[in-house]
Amino acid sequence: MELALALGLIAFKVALLIAALLLLPLPLTWLERKIAGRIQQRMGPMRVGWHGLLQPLADGIKLLTKEDHIPAEADRFLFKLAPILALAPPFVVFAAVPFGESISVMGTEISLYVANLNVALLFILAVIGIEVYGVVFGGWAANSKYALLGSLRTCAQMISYEIPMGFAVIGVVMLAQSMSLVDIVRAQADMWNIVYQPVGFFVFFVAGLAEAQRIPFDLAEAEGDLGAGFHTEYSGIRFIFFMVSEYVIMVLVSVLAVILFFGGWNGVLIPLPPLLWFFMKVAFFIYLFMWFRFTFPRYRYDQLMAIGWKVLLPLSLANIIITGILFV
Amino acid sequence: MARALEKSGNWIGWAFFADFGTALSLTFGYMFSRPVTMQYPDKEKWLPYSRYRGHHFLTRDEKGEIKCVACELCAKICPCDCIEVVPYEDATGARHPKVFEIDTARCLFCGLCEDACPADAIALGQQYEFSSYASRDLVIGRDELMRKPGKAETGGGVVGARLDTRDAVRVETDEPAGYDWWRNIRRS
Amino acid sequence: MTEMEFLPILFMIAGIVLVAVATLFVSSLLRPSNPYPAKNMPYECGMDPAGEAAGGLFRVQFFVLAILFVVFDVEAMFLFPWAMVLKEIGIVGYIEMFVFILLLLVGFAYAWLKGALEWEL
């Protein structure tokens, strides 16, 4: 009986998380277009619903009913597999992300995470690496030159920035002496990690921008010069999968930045509910992503590689060595 | 010394991404500036200046008769051959057009017909909304041309408007003079 | 209890794959299907595509990069457990890892000086 209850609770949490993450891109695309509009002195979507609030829904329905186009010379199996491979990892990763300690509902304590893994950080970095397969398969299987070029560039970019990202969080692991995200947040109860690890945060954030393929590192899409990068040949519902995955990764990087460096659900000064603190911080980071997008131009590809390998990698290694010597 | 200070200041700024900060603060400022979007056709509409060359109209004299003398000079000068005039003589022997058709699908709104007209009978007004689903609807006849609104004295502003799609797509407005829309544009 | 810890992950994978397949199914009921040869050609800005795109012809730099990635990713794998127990193993463990990082840095410097990280456009 107890086991069934526990399983039911897990299934319920998983269903809730998937629903929330699937629906999240709707308000986020609206917000992004609104912010883009305001920054460029426009208004953004205005016509569908109040201030264009229903615009993402209209777009979604449109894409859902679009013809699914598969190029004649494509590898059909990989072409169909790639969107699911791109969609799944960011969702699976969220199973290991805690949103708070626990809340009590009707006398029972319910933890605000699906799974508290003791290797959560490693798990996240490993699973998010699978995302690359979706990109590579998608670009290669389409048998189109734009898609192939885009996928190669994206792949090289993602694996290049995965290394500084992994190194940047090692300082945090040292301070918390744990890879569990819950423990890492608990360790920041007195002082946020950003105070001890400013360089680590900088490297993590820049690498996160690149991993999420946001401007100034959105070479994957590069609307101007590669068509649309690796998903040039995708249409309709499979295109939605790539887009949703991109937005979920953006949210993931924001959440990780908050958990690892900004104290998670620990508040300062104002006593607010921990969950509210957490979401406020995440919202700030999401806004930062969008703000960056409409402020900066795109880097050139060789500059992108130079930043990853010649700046971030030495910087993150130096950060590990210095943090280590101070810590021992 | 001052130069060295300035130089080191530049380096410190470089290390802390000072120019990134400048860019971000600029865009943040723009985020709270007034949008310059004109919400046409839902809420606002642009009234052109009176020098604007829009839809043609035929004028009348004091007695309400058509001014046009059907000399066909406008048809001759028209660079795209879109005016067709068929004259007739009335009881007093004055020439008037029996048929006066302008194919607005071909017209390029150069205004040469207005310049050529010896009787000041044809002119280009400020109306610019006359799109259609069929190109034959764009051939405008004599009577309709006489009904078209003439030139307004005012113009160059934005007025409130609303979109009417009940029987045809129309943008309605009832305000004669608009506000100066250019004040929305931020200059910095 | 390790199995119980990873059970939710399995639930999550099953859930998201299920949702993806269900969405594809719903979409397949709604969408039109009208393929013809011109539509099925790869997009190349209106030109007829020439040659095979997925023939395996790409720049060798991508390959070099992949090798470098493997080296440093393995290093990251070693660093994680080391960082967790650094307090207990103390200065000896630190020096050991320092030597390890140094050895890798020599390789990295070699690759840098050889120009493996240069991208001429």
From TrEMBL, chain A:
GO MF term (any one): NADH dehydrogenase (quinone) (non-electrogenic) activity
Catalysed reactions, as listed in the record: a quinone + NADH + 5 H(+)(in) = a quinol + NAD(+) + 4 H(+)(out)
Keywords: Cell membrane, Membrane, NAD, Oxidoreductase, Quinone, Translocase, Transmembrane, Transmembrane helix, Ubiquinone
Keyword Disulfide bond: no
Main location: membrane
Membrane-spanning parts: 6-31, 77-99, 119-142, 163-182, 194-210, 239-263, 275-292, 304-327
Top-level taxon of the source organism: Bacteria
Entry's localization field: Cell membrane; Membrane
Membrane topology: Multi-pass membrane protein
Record EC number: 7.1.1.-
Record-linked InterPro entries: NADH_UbQ_OxRdtase_su1/FPO, NADH_UbQ_OxRdtase_su1_CS
UniProt family annotation: Belongs to the complex I subunit 1 family.
Oligomeric and partner information: NDH-1 is composed of 14 different subunits. Subunits NuoA, H, J, K, L, M, N constitute the membrane sector of the complex.
Protein's job: NDH-1 shuttles electrons from NADH, via FMN and iron-sulfur (Fe-S) centers, to quinones in the respiratory chain. The immediate electron acceptor for the enzyme in this species is believed to be ubiquinone. Couples the redox reaction to proton translocation (for every two electrons transferred, four hydrogen ions are translocated across the cytoplasmic membrane), and thus conserves the redox energy in a proton gradient. This subunit may bind ubiquinone.
Matches recorded under PANTHER family: NADH DEHYDROGENASE SUBUNIT 1, NADH-UBIQUINONE OXIDOREDUCTASE CHAIN 1
Protein name (record): NADH-quinone oxidoreductase subunit H
Organism field: Defluviimonas salinarum
Gene name linked to the record: nuoH
From TrEMBL, chain B:
UniProt KW Ligase keyword: no
Keywords (A to Z) from UniProt: 4Fe-4S, Cell membrane, Iron, Iron-sulfur, Membrane, Metal-binding, NAD, Quinone, Repeat, Translocase, Transmembrane, Transmembrane helix, Ubiquinone
Catalytic activity: a quinone + NADH + 5 H(+)(in) = a quinol + NAD(+) + 4 H(+)(out)
UniProt cofactor note: Binds 2 [4Fe-4S] clusters per subunit.
Top-level taxonomic group: Bacteria
Transmembrane intervals: 12-33
Compartment annotation: Cell membrane
Oligomeric form and interacting partners: NDH-1 is composed of 14 different subunits. Subunits NuoA, H, J, K, L, M, N constitute the membrane sector of the complex.
Family affiliation: Belongs to the complex I 23 kDa subunit family.
Name of the protein: NADH-quinone oxidoreductase subunit I
Organism from which the protein derives: Defluviimonas salinarum
UniProtKB/TrEMBL annotation, chain C:
Coiled coil: none
Reaction(s) catalysed (UniProt annotation): a quinone + NADH + 5 H(+)(in) = a quinol + NAD(+) + 4 H(+)(out)
Record-listed E.C. numbers: 7.1.1.-
Keywords: Cell membrane, Membrane, NAD, Quinone, Translocase, Transmembrane, Transmembrane helix, Transport, Ubiquinone
Gene3D superfamilies: NADH:ubiquinone/plastoquinone oxidoreductase, chain 3
Family annotation (Pfam families): Oxidored_q4
Chain ranges passing through the membrane: 6-30, 62-85, 91-113
Membrane topology: Multi-pass membrane protein
Location(s) in or outside the cell: Cell membrane; Membrane
Enzyme class at the top of the EC tree: translocase
Subunit relationships: NDH-1 is composed of 14 different subunits. Subunits NuoA, H, J, K, L, M, N constitute the membrane sector of the complex.
Function: NDH-1 shuttles electrons from NADH, via FMN and iron-sulfur (Fe-S) centers, to quinones in the respiratory chain. The immediate electron acceptor for the enzyme in this species is believed to be ubiquinone. Couples the redox reaction to proton translocation (for every two electrons transferred, four hydrogen ions are translocated across the cytoplasmic membrane), and thus conserves the redox energy in a proton gradient.
Entry similarity comment: Belongs to the complex I subunit 3 family.
This protein's name: NADH-quinone oxidoreductase subunit A
Source organism (scientific name): Defluviimonas salinarum
Recorded name of the encoding gene: nuoA
